[in-house]
């Protein structure tokens, strides 16, 4: 019975999210909206963790299986990745590095302003 109840809560969140997506004609993914709704229900205490645990625990154990399609997508496009490897490598290095430098500069600026007061 506990499995049925916890599954019903999760599926109800998904059903409401799909209905909202259709009603609002939104391109926002319904599963993501359902997870946000479930988080809000947990944070407000409407739903307790022990109510979801029977169904959520087995799903979390098999979570890596949900990422297999992304890995297959990468393997399917290895030729394209091979053609543009230098651009991809540059982007993977320059974007994080510039982000770190920008954030560091902003923090240093505000730390300097804080000391001037």
Task: Give a nutshell description of this structure.
The chain has 117 residues and is mainly α. Helices cover 83% and strands 0% of the residues.
Overall structural domain count:
2
Query: What is the 3D form?
Result: extended
SSE succession: HHHHHH
Task: Please report the distance between the alpha carbons of the first and last residues.
Answer: 63 Å
Global mean pLDDT: 87
In terms of per-residue confidence, which ranges show pLDDT below 50 for 5 or more consecutive residues?
none
Q: Please state the structural category.
A: mainly alpha
Q: Please compute the radius of gyration using only Cα atoms.
A: 22 Å
Number of strands: 0
Pfam families: LrgA
Organism: Pseudoalteromonas lipolytica
Subcellular location: Cell membrane
Protein name: CidA/LrgA family protein
Characterization of this structure:
This protein has helices at 2-23, 30-44, 49-61, 68-76, 78-83, 85-116. The protein has two domains: 1-66, no CATH class; 85-117. It is built from six helices and no strands. The mean pLDDT is 87. The protein is mostly helical and 117 residues long.
Keywords:
extended, mainly alpha, single chain, 6 helices
Helices and strands in order, then pairings?
Elements: H1 2-23, H2 30-44, H3 49-61, H4 68-76, H5 78-83, H6 85-116
Helix pairs in contact: 1-2, 1-3
